Each structure stands twice: as structure tokens, then as C-alpha cells.
Amino acid sequence: MIPNTFTGGPFEVGTRALNLGFGVGSRYSYGTKLLPGTSSVSPAISLSYEQGLLAAGPGVVSAGVLAGFRRASYTVNGGGKWKYADVIMTVRGVFHYPIPALPELDTYAGVGLGVRHNSASYEGSTASPDEGNKTELATGIFVGARYFLLQNFGAFAELGYDQSYLKIGLSAKF
User: For the chain, which domains are there?
Assistant: First the structure.
């Protein structure tokens, strides 16, 4: 067992954290509701950064940013293929709540607001309208936890409603 060297909690005022995650599940259809066919959606890759700003009761409020990328395709029965690239960039506000019995665990909840840019193109012999590029408001809400295996390195998981429903990955703090 790794000795506990955490002071206060794993996320404090001034703490900075960087997450690299992979997400599954999506609230976006990528054309799958339009015509019969088969779809393929890659895991979302995300990078997020946040910094602890102020103490609030037993916890800490932090602010940060998230950038995510995902590709998808949809092959229409009878030929033709839609290709999608999806990029999301949000600012996030987060509340971290320490659990004294588990000083290595950082539990948190937050909201995000930003933009989502989706590009779509069609390849095929039959005529189809080109959906083109679309930029829209992106909102999100999430809960998560980081478990620090070492003082500054750990793993995280988030459940939420932004580019993917579930994110898992690695986390570093400094």
C-alpha cells in the first residue's frame, strides 16, 4: 500500500490538474436517425485543465477548460457514406468535495459552457444534401472522481452530458 502523504485533500486552492480521457456514448446522432444503415463512432478524446480558485465550505471551487475530439461515420444502405468530425471546447466550473476517510479520492461535480463544431461530408454516387459545417452552443453537466495512486498521478472517471456520457483516463496534478 502506498503511504498517505496527502494534506487536507487531494484538491485544494491553487491545485492544478490535467486530465487526458477517452469517452464513450454520445447525445449526438451523427445521422443515424435519417436513413437505414450502419454507423461507426470513435471514442471521444478529451483534454481538460482546471485550477482550484477558492475554498467554499468543506470543498474547493475550481475553473478550467475542456477540449474534445471525435470522429464518426454512417454508411447508408444502398451506398454512400457520411463522415463527421466533432470538436468541443468548453469552460468549466467545478466544486470539489473531499472525503476525509479517503484522502486520495477527489470527488467533484460541475457545469460546462462552450461551443461544438461539427463538420459533415457525404461521399457517394447518389445525390445527397451536404450538411457542411455547423457551430453551436455546447452545454454540459457532470460528476466525477479522481483517485490519486501517487501524490500527483492518478485515474479519473466522469459521468455527464457533453460530448460523451462516460469519460475515463489519467490525471496529473501540479
Answer: 16-69+87-116+134-173 (2.40.160)
Q: Look up residue 160 and give its three cell numbers.
A: 455527464
pLDDT digits (tens, 9 = 90+) for 11-67: 999 999 999 999 998 776 665 556 677 778 889 999 999 999 999 999 999 999 999
> Dihedral of CA 139/144/149/151: which sign?
positive
Place of cell 474547493: 60
pLDDT of residue 30: 65
C-alpha pair distances (Å), 157 with each of 7, 29, 147, 166: 23, 23, 9, 7
Tell me the three state secondary structure of residue 42: coil
**Could you tell me how far CA 159 lies from the centroid of its own chain?**
9
% helix / strand / coil in the chain, to the nearest 5?
0, 65, 35
Cell matching residue 115: 461551443
Kindly report the pTM of this predicted structure. 0.84
